[in-house]
Structures are given as structure tokens and as C-alpha cells.
Amino acid sequence: MDQEGMLPDAFEAVCREHRPAALYAQPTMHNPTTAIMSIERRKAIAGIARKHGVAIFEDDIYSLLPTDLPPPLSAYAPELSWYVLGTAKSMAPVFKVAYVVAPSAEAARTRFWPGDRATYWMCAPQKGVCLACDRISRSRFPYLKTDA
User: Fold this and answer.
1) Residue ranges per domain, the chain?
2) Which of 102, 92, 75 is nearest to 129 (CA)?
3) Within 13 Å and on the Cβ side, how many CA atoms surround 40?
């Protein structure tokens, strides 16, 4: 890692040597370093993932804190990416709202939704949900495209 987070050369080397199935990334406000990847770095990481067929799991939990951010890493390889954004840490714990953008509607149906029968659901306050939806729709979702 450097001041921008994950190094493309290191990711490329891992892909060649170990052939990973997935990459977990926090390109915005990486915990614990707070590194923010540049657009160029995000494009490089996405290109390497595409080249090697590596799924991307992007944890964008802190992206609602800073302003003037680059687009999510997932925007550069949407066909490989599972984008996750929760609001409890970046807005307020009471909101308890999270979003998942899958690589496709089919991926969401076959891989994500079967788990809904085995999870615990707790309703978040409606005003909190509305505030969270408004903030996210203005800041992060314009970059993410989905057919879901």
C-alpha cells in the first residue's frame, strides 16, 4: 500500500500467482489508513480485475463523509462488482440502512436474495431511511449502473 491504498502492481502479481476469485476493496477512506484511491488507480485496479476475471467487493462505507470524491471503483468494472454502502458509520447508527448494487439483476437474484430467508431484519426509522436515500442518491448512485 501507499498513500492511495492498494498498489496495482501488487494486485497484478497476486492475480498471476494465486488466481484469486475476488477482491475486497475499500478505495474510499480505507480503514484504518483513510487512503483515497485516485481515479487513475481505480481504473488500473478495475482493469486488472477485468483482465483476470476477479470479482470486486467494494466496501464504500465511509464514502458519505468526505466531499469531492472520485467515482466508486465499481463504476470502472460494473460487470464484476458488488458495491456495498452502509449508512450507520458515515451518517448515524440509528439509520441502519445499507445498499448493495450487484453486477446484474441475475447475480442479485441467484446469489444475494436466497439469503433473505436466513437473515434477521430490523426496521430502520422511516425518516432516517429517507435521509439516507437522499444523501446516497445525490452522492454515489449516479456513478453506478445496474439492470436490477
Assistant:
1) 8-143
2) 92
3) 2
